[in-house]
């Protein structure tokens, strides 16, 4: 028999145990599953559909084993609710049930389940199937995270920013909340690269990205790489005053890094300039208008001598 790879070997970068939620009204079943999986998984247990849904909201699992027959809410209903809203997260659901009617099995797949296991269970088989499904889930999580992050700096990329902008624009319109953006551009970065080399340039970009990210810490804030040596910060529910404060903190944070830049015409260290714009999202403007306004202000910061903010 060939040796089985561990989940950590299958999924690069996996630093935690995958989370498995077992939903069954019979505690004996939960205990059996716990025994089977406790070594490789962090096992969560729910004895009713209602409890399972609540737990998914606070901490979605990576995979769920779901009983069909339960009092109050059956497994089919739980699955239907889970798959009807993104708020529960996306993870594979495997039904584990004493019902072995073909139509029941078909119904499970129609509701979005990935597998159907009959009771009494065969532990080795349950283990193998859970492993196969959770591997696909974790690999797709990893791909999704690659797709939205910038390879060099690790901060979210332009694609992520564009999606967030659309999302927050709509949210701002619904809730009548202001939306602010800050565009940040490194000063005299061409000269930095020319003098210190591209590798040092890349290192500087990483440090700047980290320093800027540290200044945008509310859950909805996002600091993304916009392109080249430009970053963009999206600040939902933030007015111009609030955005100005954060932008100034960003400019100061980069100064504090004190990255030597002997060729800069502003200071002897690396600096950034920022442009700020704020709008109450509506049908009269577009997200592009907001970005154009921030870009205009950035241009103004550059014109006024750099290492500053404009709004
Ligand atoms: P300004 O103060 O007006 O913004 O001048 P600048 O030199 O920063 O602007 P310019 O647009 O002339 O040059 C930007 C430079 O940023 C050019 C390029 O060498 C550098 N750059 C862009 N992306 C990267 C990157 O991923 N790595 C490195 N090392 N350099 C980059
Ligand atoms: Mg049951
Ligand atoms: Mg630029
Ligand atoms: Mg620049």
Automatic annotation (TrEMBL):
<dbReference type="Pfam" id="PF00072">
    <property type="entry name" value="Response_reg"/>
</dbReference>
<dbReference type="InterPro" id="IPR001789">
    <property type="entry name" value="Sig_transdc_resp-reg_receiver"/>
</dbReference>
<dbReference type="InterPro" id="IPR043128">
    <property type="entry name" value="Rev_trsase/Diguanyl_cyclase"/>
</dbReference>
<feature type="modified residue" description="4-aspartylphosphate">
    <location>
        <position position="67"/>
    </location>
</feature>
<feature type="domain" description="GGDEF">
    <location>
        <begin position="177"/>
        <end position="311"/>
    </location>
</feature>
<dbReference type="Pfam" id="PF00990">
    <property type="entry name" value="GGDEF"/>
</dbReference>
<protein>
    <recommendedName>
        <fullName>diguanylate cyclase</fullName>
        <ecNumber>2.7.7.65</ecNumber>
    </recommendedName>
</protein>
<keyword id="KW-0597">Phosphoprotein</keyword>
<feature type="domain" description="Response regulatory">
    <location>
        <begin position="19"/>
        <end position="134"/>
    </location>
</feature>
<dbReference type="InterPro" id="IPR050469">
    <property type="entry name" value="Diguanylate_Cyclase"/>
</dbReference>
<dbReference type="InterPro" id="IPR011006">
    <property type="entry name" value="CheY-like_superfamily"/>
</dbReference>
<dbReference type="InterPro" id="IPR029787">
    <property type="entry name" value="Nucleotide_cyclase"/>
</dbReference>
<dbReference type="InterPro" id="IPR000160">
    <property type="entry name" value="GGDEF_dom"/>
</dbReference>
